[in-house]
Amino acid sequence: MAVTDRDRQRYDSATAHLEPPFAVVDLAALRANAAAMTRRAAGKPIRLASKSVRCRALIDQVLRMDGFRGILAFTLPEALWLAERGTCDDILVGYPTADRTALARLAGDPAAAAAITVMVDCPEHLDMIEKAAAGAAEPHPVRVCIDIDAGYVALRGRLRAGARRSPVRTPGDAAALAAAIVARPGLRLAGLMAYEAQIAGVGDNPAGQPLQAMAIRYLQRKSGAELAVRRAEIVAVVRSVAPLEFVNGGGTGSVEKTAAEAAVTEIGAGSGLYQPRLFDSYRGFRGQPAALFALPVVRRPGAGVITALGGGYLASGPGNRSRLPGPYLPAGLRLDRQEGAGEVQTPLIGAAADRLRIGDRVWLRHAKAGELCERFSELHLIEDNAVVTTVPTYRGEGKTFL
Ligand SMILES: Cc1ncc(COP(=O)(O)O)c(C=O)c1O
Questions:
Q1: Considering only CA atoms, which residue is closest to atom 7 of ligand 1?
Q2: Is pLDDT larger for residue 136 or for residue 77?
Q3: How many other CB atoms are found less than 10 A from the CB of residue 305?
Q4: How far is the CA of 270 from the centre of ligand 1 (A)?
Q5: C-alpha separations of 12 from 16, 19, 136, 299, 335 in Å
Q6: Per-residue pLDDT for 347 more than 90?
Q7: Which three-class secondary structure state does DSSP give residue 189?
Q8: Which of 195, 246, 277 best tests ligand 1's pocket when mutated (most atoms within 8 Å of CB)?
């Protein structure tokens, strides 16, 4: 029997008592993925990207594993919530905040101010933090991290690859912002971050697209070489302005490449734990699908097609087919091109459809990692042939941060 058939049997029997739709995490797959990420990081710690997990029980489990240290959070209210609950005492908020209330809470709470670092990339951020902190009764210094633009720019700006994030790009930009931080007694410069989305988040082995694969690999090689030099220069000049506790870089798709740069002290990553569909197309690693959701088969409209209830759980990003969930088990099903994944029902086409009956279940994978948890309030955790425990997602705890 194929591995996927065995997995299907295992998942079906472990969850026979549950009514779909529901979501599960296969703990053995999650552990194997974590171990593979740790090996790829070659001794550098991985700061866990919480947006890619969005479940406190699993964040706790991963932080207890070898190789993971600290959290890369996605909002300041989330970071405050995690710190207050004792999940972690080293939380970097990966994106700037304009939440004055949360900033005032941060500055007013000594434990939170010691545990949490917020992201900045311009003097306006510094002003906003200082102003909000002034509202606290007894403000504590706020730890900040400078976000560096890790994008690739060529042909005098006509070619751009990477996320539009920070205006801080050169060693001079970084040194000037570092000096502005050091000059403000209410702020502490704790670290630098440079996230190379065009390498870490773009698969270099897209299925059935050899020309695109060549173009992606070429661009990633050029970008990686440019960034390694620029990142090292930036780190050196900022270290001459202030000591740095950490230099964060990379993501699931670039762990081994980013970790190889001497200037980088830690990797920020999380998606590889659930191994969603968008991370299937990398040459450097192959994770095991760990997060799945089950839908019930509710109709059989004709030969070679079944219809499942629900399923329209699209991922963020450019609005194209890559963001759709994908049928996983049984093998041999595909989405209908016209209908995609629907708000209330999803037709699935293929030879396997004729072997499915009403009331059976189909298993799908989300395109991205933690966003799945915005659709489900619980995750059923599977070990071997059984659900060993059921834990709330962020949503299940009433927390929808974004
Ligand atoms: C700042 C930052 N670091 C790292 C990552 C990588 O996270 P993951 O490994 O979950 O893709 C991301 C993803 O968007 C990010 O925004």
A1: 269
A2: 77
A3: 17
A4: 7
A5: 6, 11, 53, 19, 21
A6: yes
A7: strand
A8: 195
For residue 245, the one-letter residue type is: E
The residue whose C-alpha atom lies closest to atom 3 belonging to ligand 1 is 268
**Which protein residue's CA is at the shortest distance from atom 12 of ligand 1?**
251
Per-residue confidence (pLDDT) for residue 37, from 0 to 100: 98
What is the identity of the amino acid at 95?
Y
**Average pLDDT in the chain:** 97
Report the residue among 33, 50, 54, 72 best suited for mutation to probe ligand 1: largest number of ligand atoms under 8 A from its CB: 72
The candidate with the shortest Cα–Cα distance to 161, out of 103, 213, 219, is: 219
Ligand 1 pocket list (CB less than 6 A): 49, 52, 72, 94, 195, 200-201, 251-252, 268-272, 369
How far does residue 106's CA lie from ligand 1's centre (Å)?
Answer: 23
Which atom of ligand 1 is found nearest the CA of 250?
4
Q: Which two tokens stand for residue 126?
A: 């510094």
Backbone φ and ψ for 84, nearest 5 degrees, come out as -60, -35
Distance 201 CA to ligand 1 centre (A): 8
Checking if the pLDDT of 1 tops 90, the result is: no
Closest ligand 1 atom to Cα of 279: 11
Kindly report the protein residue whose alpha carbon is nearest to atom 5 of ligand 1.
251
Mark out the alpha helices in 242-384 (DSSP H runs).
255-259, 271-274
The identity of residue 12, as a single letter, is D
Q: Using the predicted structure, report yes or no on whether residue 87 has a pLDDT greater than 90.
A: yes
Neighbours of 95 (CB within 10 A): 17
User: CB-based burial of residue 129 (10 Å sphere; 0-12 exposed, 13-18 middle, 19+ buried)?
Assistant: buried
Given a cut of 80, is residue 400 above it in pLDDT?
A: yes
Q: What is the pLDDT of residues 369-390, one digit of tens each?
A: 999 999 999 999 999 999 999 9
> HSE on the CB side for 329, CA within 13 Å?
20
What is the C-alpha R_g of the chain?
Answer: 22
Evaluate whether 380 touches 24 at the Cβ level (below 8 Å). yes
- pLDDT of 278 > 80? The answer is yes
Residue 194 has pLDDT above 80, yes or no: yes
Is there a contact between 378 and 23 (Cβ–Cβ < 8 Å)?
A: yes
What pLDDT does residue 5 have? 87
Mutation test of ligand 1: which of 40, 52, 373 has the most ligand atoms closer than 8 Å to its C-beta?
52
